[in-house]
Amino acid sequence: MDKLRLLFSKTGRAVYISHLDLMRTMTRAFLRAGMRLKYSEGFNPHPNISIALPLSVGCESNCEIMDFKLIEDRAPDEILRLLSDQLPEGIEVIDVYEAQRKVKELKWLRVGGRFEYDDRDIAAMTKSLNEFFSRESIVIQKKTKRGVGESDITCAIKELSFEEFGDVVYMRGLISAQEPTLNPELISDALHQLAPEIAPDFAKFKRLEVFDESMEVFR
Q: Could you tell me which residues are beta bridge partners of residue 56?
């Protein structure tokens, strides 16, 4: 097998593991499991592993994808079993299989969110959130590699809705994963910048599923 793909979840306390530390965690897990990763060539060789969409610290996910290469052949079910025994709490291997599709084909991301308010009317917040994100244009200040610039996030939102449930507002959305990339946290940032009166006191997000351009589940 040339390139293998790992589908895994990152939940619970594991959400506080940074992307760089996650890469190190995965590398060590392979080592402890007795599976040798292929390394790049050159003056500074590094493990031949890559995670499709680096996850922000604090965000949960049920659909993380990591590509890797091993020196020796191993059956996917054996890799799943051996690796599962070595990963920390909160990181769970869901599937291991041969990578058939290029990561650049990944386009849409299904996300969920939980918005909490300390002392505001939940029904009123839900109504206002749905109205705010129905705007034709939502231009925010966004950090880029070149500094801070303006970005209209509506072009990266395919679906977005909010629903009241008890004392919490739940968000459900379908956003662009690549070209352009929309971090779910920018949804909360947009509110803090443009409509602080309905911005949540606490917001938490979770990746639920990934799709291609045609809305087929991406694997």
A: none
φ/ψ bin of 12: left (φ > 0), alpha (ψ from -120 to 50), beta (otherwise): left
Half-sphere exposure of 198 (CA within 13 A, CB side): 19
Q: Taking 70 as the threshold, does the pLDDT of residue 1 lie above it?
A: no
Closest CA to 8 of 213, 207, 216, 211: 207
Distances (CA, A) of 32 to 28, 75, 165: 6, 17, 44
* 70 beta partners: 37
Instruction: Identify residue 176 by its one-letter amino acid code.
Output: S
* C-beta separation of 198 from 54 below 8 A: no
Say what the pTM is.
0.88
Tokens coding 219:
């694997």
- Tens digit of each residue's pLDDT (9 = 90 or more) over 27-63: 999 999 999 999 888 778 888 899 999 999 999 999 9
